[in-house]
Design a protein that fits this description.
mainly alpha, single chain
Length: 286
Amino acid sequence: MEFLSMEILGAWSIVFFTICIFSYLFGDNPFYKIAEHIFVGVSAGYIAVYTFWSTIWPNLFGRLWPASQTSDSILMKMWYAVYGIFSFIVGFVNESIFPKGGVDSGFELNITYVVPLILGIFMILRLVPSLSWLARFSIAYIVGMISGLKLYSFLNSNILMQVKDLGINTEASSWIIFNQLLIIIGVVSGLIYFFFSMEHKGFIGKVSKIGIFYLMIKFGASFGFAVMGRISLLIGRFEELIQYSSSEYYNATPVILIVIIISLTAWFMINQNKNNLNEEKVETEV
């Protein structure tokens, strides 16, 4: 493969950024900051572009100015005149954002989508200090709507479904009945552990201790599952580092590793010398 091919450049980039992130094990350094800033910037840019083309463009613009609209009324012509202004302004950058005739995303005209358009503009005005107060309306709407939706979903999944699972099916096998009893004991003992209106002594104290065991098992299982997921990601990183260390990829891993180690060593030595000079200056001033 050619050295400047996209596959080789991609392999070297993967190795470089992976080792840059791993370099944080030796402390904060310029290589880690470079990888961190590029990762955050690329991720933010990708999410912004993906959200625009997958959500805003088809679901908002596609409903406000659909290409399928054929009405010749004066109001409709005025409405599409606004679209023409957007098309003229943005057309210098990318004509596909506001194509001529409207947005063809398979939707019909729905004028109620002017509300999310206005709220979105209010959010952007947060960047303008004199008009930043308008963003409060958008934030209030988002918080209220999400709170209502999440309240229903959590109520249904975390409370109603939990209460439903507390029942015991006496017609099931003994093993299923045993599991259902464990669930009931865990739920009741866990709730009693967080019930602080009564002192945890006697029977209440014993039940709350059972709740502690359930909680510790749950936390331990969650932590183990998280560690297993991170270890699988780490294994994937090492597999790629080993793969790209071959001559087929021009020994990307050892070359980049040696360069970063030498650079970090020099950087740490320079910083150490600067710190020593600063300490000497402080001592002489004292």
